[in-house]
Amino acid sequence: MEQLQRAIIERGSVLSDDVLKVDQFLNHQIDTNLMINIGREFVSRFQDSKITKVLTIESSGIAPSFMAANELDVPLVFARKKKSLTVTDYIYSSGVYSYTKQEMNNITVSKNYLSSDDHVLIIDDFLAHGNAALGLIDVVKQAGASVAGVGIVIEKSFQEGRKMLEREGHRVESLARIHSLEGSKVSFLEELATK
Ligand code: G4P
User: Fold this and answer.
1) Most CB within 10 Å of its CB: which of 64, 103, 107, 172?
2) What is the rounded CA–CA span in Å between residue 93 and residue 23?
3) How many CA atoms lie within 13 A of 133 on its CB side?
4) pLDDT digits (tens, 9 = 90+) for 42-91
5) How far apart are CA 120 and CA 140, in angstroms?
6) How confident is residue 194, by pLDDT bands cut at 50, 70 and 90?
7) Whose CA is closest to 133, among 174, 103, 72?
8) How far is the centre of ligand 1, averaged over its atoms, from the C-alpha of 7 (Å)?
9) Distance CA 164, CA 66 (A)
10) 84 vs 189, which has greater pLDDT?
11) 158-174: per-residue pLDDT in tens?
């Protein structure tokens, strides 16, 4: 997705060989026009699936997921990382380890918002090691629902997330696929393919 690649190049910054900072449009300040187009792109990529719900994880997954769910005209559910005061016992939960932050989060979703009738599109901002997506897939399975696929805004293709998801038979659609961040330079898989 060209608009996204341009945003990454022009407004992102490389913090290290494996971390890209995109606070300017995705992780802190949000570019709403870009999010609208990201939502449309997800919908066009999954148009052959009869999606009934979009599932993401707080907090940075919410903006792109909101736009996709709105385009699809289905509800958006976000998994919580912190215990909620109001959502207590009636929950699905899964342990998600964050390599980046080196912490364990127990993600939870109320049983009221996912059921065995649902065909779920999972969306997240980053795909790194795949743990967040695998945790969300686990929650979908606990509900007896099915996974339509995983939509990712920025995939770090040099980490093993995609492989982990595809190994379990899941379809992964990433709008930007980063081949490398080495030397403080972002290089995309798509541009390598056209060279
Ligand atoms: P994984 O979920 O694919 O296994 O990845 P990992 O454990 O490495 O990522 C944990 C958190 O760090 C996630 O955010 C993920 O989106 C974010 N992250 C991973 N790599 C990068 C990167 O290169 N740049 C940025 N900006 N973020 C990255 P989170 O903890 O869920 O945070 P948030 O959604 O509350 O912002």
Assistant:
1) 64
2) 28
3) 32
4) 999 999 999 999 999 999 999 999 999 999 999 999 999 987 667 667 89
5) 7
6) low
7) 174
8) 18
9) 25
10) 189
11) 999 999 999 999 999 99
What's the gap in Å between 126 CA and the centre of ligand 1? 6
* 76: β partners: 54
DSSP count for the chain of H helices, then E strands = 6, 10
Residue 125 Cα to ligand 1 midpoint, Å, equals: 8
Ligand 1 atom closest to 124 (CA): 16
Ligand 1 binding site (Cβ under 6 Å of any ligand atom) = 19-22, 27, 57, 59-61, 98-101, 125-132, 156, 161
Helix, strand, or coil (residue 40): helix
Nearest CA to ligand 1 atom 36: 60
For residue 130, how far is its CA from the centre of ligand 1 (angstroms)?
A: 10
Which of 78, 126, 154, 172 gets mutated to test ligand 1 (max ligand atoms within 8 A of its CB)?
A: 126
Domain boundaries, the chain: 2-188
Element (H, E) at 20: strand 19-21
Report CA Rg, the chain: 16
